[in-house]
Amino acid sequence: MSDTTDKKIVEAMSASHDLNTGVETSHRFALLTVPRSGSWLLSKMMERTGLAGAPDEYLNIRNIRAYANINSIKDVVIKSYLQELERRRTSANGTFGLKLHWDQFADVFSNKDKVIIQEGLDFLQEMDVLIRLYRRDKLSQAISNFIAMKTDEWMVTHDSNGQNSTRDVEVLFDPIAITNELKWMVWQERMWIEFLQRHKLSYESICYEELVADYEGESRRVLTLIGVDESVPVPEQQLKRQANELNARLRSEYLCYLGLSDQ
């Protein structure tokens, strides 16, 4: 990732994104995600309701580092960090949320042997609602992440008008890199499922393809899961779909590389 992403993370962790409602947190949720599975689409929708906190990747090591730099803290204590975020980013109805990739969860809550510690399990058990996001088309997911890594463009809003777009960066076909991304996506999803089932944690699943096909219906389902009243309208979709001819070309080239057809 480039300095552009770092600047966006610093801005996202700044006080300008705080809700400052003064309301004590009474309801918590976590979006358990894998990259390119619709987490930005959902989290931005939820934030715009004004009743679902301001869900972001707060346990991403880069977000934690940005928080430390902003506040001149040398060593961030995760429990205290999360408590402060709840004070700053709980919505008026008492709801706080975050989104979390498996590798971010493991980075924070695993020991030197890469085993998830009790604190990690406690963290998830303290959530009132766990929502797992997944994507059926793993190849398209892997290609999407491959492109995002190359271009440093992770989401595009409808009002951006192409400003600061990095999609003009040349992205060359790299079958090994795409294969590695594919393995990475499958592994992260498998780890979430195994961990949740092993510890008998209750969760709901949201499919990316269904979210894209029925944005309002699936968004309503998510809002209902976290207790938002049905009378609250679903905000219009803010993010643009990023898949384009580049994604299609890379997919076709990858299938040809494997000796398969895209039929």
TrEMBL record:
Sulphotransferase Stf0 domain spans which residues? 31-247
Q: Which residues form a coiled coil?
A: none
- The signal peptide, as residue positions, is none
Transmembrane regions: none
* Name the UniProt record assigns to this protein: Sulphotransferase Stf0 domain-containing protein
